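Archive entry: two folds, one per protein. Generate the first.
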Amino acid sequence: WWADYHRYEEQIPRELHAATSRLGFSALRVFLHYEVYKVDRGRTLYAALRSFLNVAGREGLGVGLVLFDDCYNQTASVVPCPPVKGVHNGCWQASPSAQDRHSEAITGCLSEYVRWTVGNFSLDPRVLWWEVYNEPNMSSQFSLALRDEAYRVAKHQLAAVSSSTPVLACWSDNNDTDMVDLHAYTPNFPDWDKVVFGSDKRTLVTEAGSRWTSLSSGDPTSDQGSPLLVLA
């Protein structure tokens, strides 16, 4: 999406205005992508992000920025992806993609991406939090090492300018997050409480109530966490 930002730029003011005026949003969680950064070391990505933040700021919206993500397709490309009918998140592309998932990249090009991205926007009041990793694969040594490095670099960049902007990472509470980064997809609210109140850290629920059509219970009529149930 960031690589194709110019195609959507005219629609963004309308969409963000609707988010505030119709839905009452005060913040958005927005995913960046290393592949777009890699094309020209951030020139295209940062220009688009500044434009987006300008619109968000005019609407009074804060933004949380996600740097890395293990969901879904790891053969990412800056070429626009045509939607695949009936495929869940068929165009969602992991960041980084497969060709950059090697140990040398962690402290090399991927660390540079974090350093330059956080550094360029470290004092921007519209950025409410930095989320260095969404849903890392906990069985992947690469993902865990990258999460460690990304958190370290982001904290260093923010400390250099005395910024108190929190740095987050999934899953829930861990050594690489300033706040509990909670993803809750089921209506098992006692488990939510265990995560939220089981840590001395504050909690930000970054994902919840978005898979209510799941058939994992075996009962197609059961509610697996619909937005109305979560809000109730």
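Generate the second and append.
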Amino acid sequence: MFGMERVITDTVRYLSLHDNKYLRYFPGHTKRVVALQMSPVNDTFLTGSLDKTVRLWDLKSPNCQGIMHLTGRPVASFDPEGLIFAVGVESKMVKLYDLRSFDKGPFTTFPVRQDFAECEWSNIKFSPDGKLIMISTNISQIRVLDAFQGNEINTLSGHLNNQGLPLEATFTPDSQFVLSGSQDGAVHVWEAESGRRLCVLDGGHPGPTRCVQFNPKYMTMVTSCTNLAMWLPSPDDT
């Protein structure tokens, strides 16, 4: 009997949910992958890693289509049209790239005010209408920026996160509201442009609500910690 050493790599894997088999492997990153997003219009996707690179891929090829070398931990996201992508660097600045000429570098860079030294960006997202950029952090703050000028519109706060968790936040499909998980298992809801907190939802989560996703077409939402909650509007709200 021979023992087999378990090898853990930072290769991205493409899994078929139909038969639970890996269709393709995407090697290249040398440290943990901390960001991954599919293009909304084709088979292109972005990955960001602690090796301080953002890589551009196509599902049809295991070879990296492009690489951007950065100076710190990245977060990355496509805009709704799939033509522009944003990269957050060192939790200090947002760089915007044109997908068709990303090798020429960012076409604009927005510095972002940093209130706390321990604040680290955990995610970045465009609003569905492409007008706003939302930055999630590992503290009780979510930044909302103007996607064209980079001006800070507001800071969303009130949710609990004193453990430095990467709690996910998301826009509603109409771009009017932001929902975020909380360390205590709740889900908080704000108006995106005014920053006014509207309500706190209880999904019965026993731990931190790390994942929040809104259906892009229908009035349904999912949140999760160690359990999963599916949300529908009540008849009184319709």
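Annotation attached to the second fold: The radius of gyration is 18 Å. DSSP finds no helices and 21 strands in the chain.
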